[in-house]
Design brief:
With 361 residues, the protein is an alpha/beta fold. It is built from 15 helices and 15 strands.
Length: 361
């Protein structure tokens, strides 16, 4: 297994690329995802490469890498045949590696014919390769489920596992928890346990908590409705108890009437002269591109900006893509107008156009 640097040419043969980032602990050296990749590499005849996504932007752009970890599989001509984001499904990754390993090269008809004449032998060989490629300590159902639960729990700073959705809670306890979080303007993500029985039952064991809803802050279990209610009555309310930033809008218009999504988005993009929609918070970005654009803005003299964590509100996350006809994040707005993402802002900053824009507006 080798590391590809910014000066390394893209592979031109069958190979597997692992895109990682130092701020993402599981994918960083000796992290759980890094060890999984090393295990796969040691059991395969294919060349495996590690690529630090932010340090090698040309390759990240070439293969459209927007999250880490990501795995890119290249054919015998160096053409991408598969890209897998995350490690929620380890079996899919191992099967994709196996499929690539057995993928015939162009003009390899003779070899294919030879293989087809002994299909039983081929099947046995594939089964042996599958066993070799499969890291046994990663494929037990319990460990796969625990990894999935960990990813869900940490997907938002404040994460609620409930029955139903925030707009349509399916039990009174979930509804009351939503009301408490909304009353205290706490941004949160949510998961409907009624949509996935494995998550519903798995969380009871994982966190040793038998009932729902369950609320987590930064990956740690807070508890259910009663505990959240008690914390809300403490000095400073939930925001101080959770040590999180509150949202700036309660999602309602004048007179308490519900706003349409377009009205809400219009208010959000105009909430500050410079408004950033990102994954995470400026103090704790959840993706490398969001971190880079925050560093860029923080390094500009006299530039003040506000931000919105799209991971805490799926309606805003999906709505903005249509609202501004821009499919990716981060998104930066000035005076309510979309400027673009990291590449555009970086280019404008390098050419002095961003300062001109702020001075003219």
């Amino acid at each position: 297994m080798k590391d590809l640097s910014a000066s390394s040419p893209p592979p031109t043969s069958k190979s597997v690329l692992f895109f990682w980032a130092d701020w993402h602990e599981p994918s960083s050296p000796n992290g759980s995802t890094d060890l999984l990749f090393r295990t796969l590499a040691s059991s395969s005849s294919l060349p495996f490469y590690r690529v630090e996504a932010e340090a090698v932007p040309d390759l990240s752009t070439r293969y459209d890498i927007t999250v880490v970890p990501s795995f890119v599989l290249l054919d015998h001509e160096g053409v991408m045949v598969d890209r897998i984001e995350g490690v929620d499904d380890v079996s899919r990754l191992t099967q994709a590696v196996l499929a690539l390993q057995n993928r015939p090269a162009a003009g390899g008809g003779g070899e294919e014919s030879k293989e087809s004449s002994s299909s039983s032998g081929t099947q046995q060989q594939q089964q042996q390769q599958q066993q070799q490629l499969t890291p046994t300590n990663e494929l037990t159902e319990e460990e796969q489920l625990n990894q999935k639960l960990k990813n869900l729990i940490t997907s938002s700073q404040v994460m609620l596992f409930m029955k139903g959705s925030p707009k349509e809670p399916q039990c009174g306890f979930s509804r009351q928890t939503i009301e408490l979080l909304s009353k205290h303007n706490i941004p949160f993500g949510s998961f409907d346990i009624l949509s996935d029985e494995s998550v519903r039952q798995g969380l009871k064991t994982y966190s040793d908590w038998p009932t729902f809803p369950q609320l987590y802050v930064r990956g740690d279990l807070i508890g259910g409705l009663d505990i959240v209610r008690e914390m809300a009555e403490e000095d400073g309310g939930l925001a101080e108890q959770f040590e999180v930033d509150v949202v700036g809008s309660d999602g309602r218009g004048k007179g308490g009437e519900e706003e349409t999504l377009d009205e809400r988005l219009t208010k959000l993009v105009n909430r500050h002269k410079v408004m950033l929609f990102m994954k995470g918070l400026p103090s704790a970005p959840k993706c490398g591109f969001s971190r880079q654009i925050c560093e860029l803005l923080n390094g500009m003299d006299g530039v003040s900006y506000d931000s919105f964590n799209i991971l805490e509100d799926e309606e805003v996350r999906q709505g903005l893509k249509k609202f501004s006809d821009w499919p990716t994040f981060p998104q930066l707005y000035v005076d309510g107008d979309l400027i673009g993402g990291l590449d555009i802002v970086k280019e404008m900053a390098e050419e002095g156009e961003f300062d001109d824009l702020l001075n003219d507006s």
